[in-house]
Design brief:
Order of helices and strands: HEHHEEEHEHHEHEHEHEEEHEH
Strand order of the largest sheet: 7-2-1-8-9-12
CATH class of the largest domain: Alpha Beta
CATH topology of the largest domain: Rossmann fold
Shape: globular
Strand content: 5-15%
Largest sheet: 6 strands, parallel
Distance between the termini: 17 Å
Radius of gyration: 21 Å
Number of strands: 12
CATH architecture of the largest domain: 3-Layer(aba) Sandwich
Structural class: alpha/beta
Length: about 350
């Protein structure tokens, strides 16, 4: 049934194998399309356009890089296997609530080799690049510990002088706005790579939903601007360059989703970074447009985890503080394992 007419969660389709969520494999689209149509008919699921109550699911950066063990930035969380556990629950949530979820939007973090948060962008006095997970502060740049790599200027279409001025301006902006220091990440979610792809089990679930509900999924590409980090799906960390020139802009797409749907469910990776930043930007935009929109947001907290690298960094506390703040602002923090009808307040 569509909307919230069916009070019981649907059974999991026969093809779903929770043991494959931690693996990379090819989705059999032809077979899965046939399965989706027959399964929808059997479960009496109506096309999404017939939903009386419109529910959107936003899955942030559920990509191999972040979600498959052994890839560059696997979100291990406190359990050591967090992203895999998150995605197992996410897939089950999509299948069990197939008749309730009207539309799915997926974001894809998308990078190139030369970006401000990758090692190649910076050098020290010896010409060496920072190691992954190095934190670069405004003071570090001001005092010359790290500087713009002059060898990449031509490739980026900027001058060496501009690159250095921008790096100084950028780290100062982060400091003044109380953001995390510039983090140098391992090369990750490289455009065209296996790491950039959606987790196969999640991709299959999204495709299955598209066919079963006759609802085209949306894919939002973010993060390719070389001069700024782009954690939030709503917009990059820094929008202006050292001379006040615009280098990037925020997207209105997610605010439009919030306006056009009765409920928006958000989850993905990582809870401490891209998920938290997206929600924070969406909260600000919502309050500016219509504060009642905040009540439409549901945060699926058991399908997202913070960045934790034992002995190096642990953003668990920051993630929890952010989610508490979102809850106090009026957003709903919920769990996928609870019946959606018990928490979807429509």
């Amino acid at each position: 049934m569509s909307g919230l007419e069916n009070p019981k969660p649907l059974p999991l389709p026969a093809h779903f194998n929770p043991e494959k969520v931690n693996q990379v494999w090819k989705v059999d689209y032809a077979t899965r399309a046939k399965d989706a149509q027959s399964w929808a008919k059997k479960q009496r699921i109506k096309p999404a356009f017939q939903d009386k109550l419109k529910v959107a699911l936003v899955a942030i950066d559920v990509q191999n890089t972040f979600c498959i063990p052994g890839f560059e930035l696997f979100v291990a969380g406190q359990s050591g296997n967090a992203a895999v556990e998150d995605n197992r629950r996410l897939c089950e949530f999509i299948y069990r609530n197939m008749g309730v979820i009207t539309h799915i939007t997926v974001t894809l973090d998308t990078h190139h080799a030369i970006q401000i948060f990758h090692p190649l962008f910076l050098v020290d006095k010896k010409g060496e690049h920072p190691a992954p997970l190095t934190l670069v502060s405004y003071e570090d740049v001001q005092q010359g510990r790290w500087r713009f790599n002059p060898k990449v200027a031509d490739s980026l279409g900027i001058t060496v002088e501009y690159g250095q001025e921008h790096l100084l301006h950028y780290t100062q902006e982060l400091q003044e706005r109380q953001k995390y220091d510039l983090t140098i990440w391992p090369y990750h979610v490289m455009l065209g790579s296996i790491g950039h792809a959606l987790v196969a089990s999640v991709e299959e679930a999204v495709f299955f939903h598209s066919v079963a509900r006759y609802s085209q999924a949306s894919f939002d590409i973010k993060g390719s601007n070389p001069l700024t980090e782009h954690y939030s799906a709503v917009g990059p960390e820094v929008l202006d360059g050292p001379y006040g020139e615009q280098i990037a802009q925020k997207s209105t797409g997610f605010l439009e989703i919030l306006i056009n749907y009765d409920a928006v469910i958000i989850t993905g990776q990582a809870k401490s970074h891209c998920v938290a930043w997206t929600i924070d930007d969406l909260l600000v935009a919502s309050l500016q447009y219509d504060e009642r929109l905040v009540q439409k947001v549901y945060l699926l907290e058991d399908c997202t985890s913070p960045v934790v690298v034992p002995g190096v960094v642990d953003y668990s506390a920051q993630a929890e503080v952010a989610f508490e703040r979102f809850s106090h602002a009026g957003m709903h923090v919920v769990r996928s394992i609870e019946p959606i009808q018990s928490w979807l307040k429509l």
